Amino acid sequence: MRLSAIAACVALAMSLCPYAKADSRQDCVDPRAEIRVQGCSEVLKSGPAFWALANRAIGYRVLRQFENALADANAAMRINASTAGLYLERGFIHLGKANHDLAAADFSEAVRLDPRLTSAYFGRALAYENVGDARRAKKDLEQAVAIDRALVGAHWLQHGDELRAAGRHKDSITAYDRALIGNPDMVLANYRRGLAHEA
Fold first, then answer.
1. 182-191 long-range CB contacts below 8 Å, 24 or more apart?
2. Number of folded domains that form the chain
């Protein structure tokens, strides 16, 4: 798993679980997906808890167990449907399942709940791009950059890594180029772009 993805998961987990302390619940916010799923499953043995369901959904998504992730995200939403981070997470789950219209709808709800949530604009841009709507994708990317240029660069870097790992080297180069547009000194994007060219 990429470092930027781990950092994003931990940040989301902490926003969903602000009262996690160094006790038995700590594993439920662990950046390692397997431990997160196990820890949250232990917590959930005592009954449904919004934050444990939301954090386990993250773990399942990272493990690419999208059906389990979606079930947990939906269960968490039945408890509290007003958390932008949960719509963001469910949007990324839908992206993983290639349900781009559902992903765009969840990212839109995340933006409605928190208009400064850069990751939601980025995710929605990916969903739009995947259905061929370049105009709306560009608009969302511009909005994301206006909010947080460095985070958008990190998102493109992670996306480039995923594409390169899947053998889609030409697409990964495009993603690395996008990371460099707003962050020309991003050393990792330059380096990984070079690796993709060599492949």
1. 182/145, 182/149, 182/150, 182/152, 182/153, 183/149, 183/150, 183/153, 186/153, 186/157, 188/157, 189/153, 189/156, 189/157, 189/160
2. 2
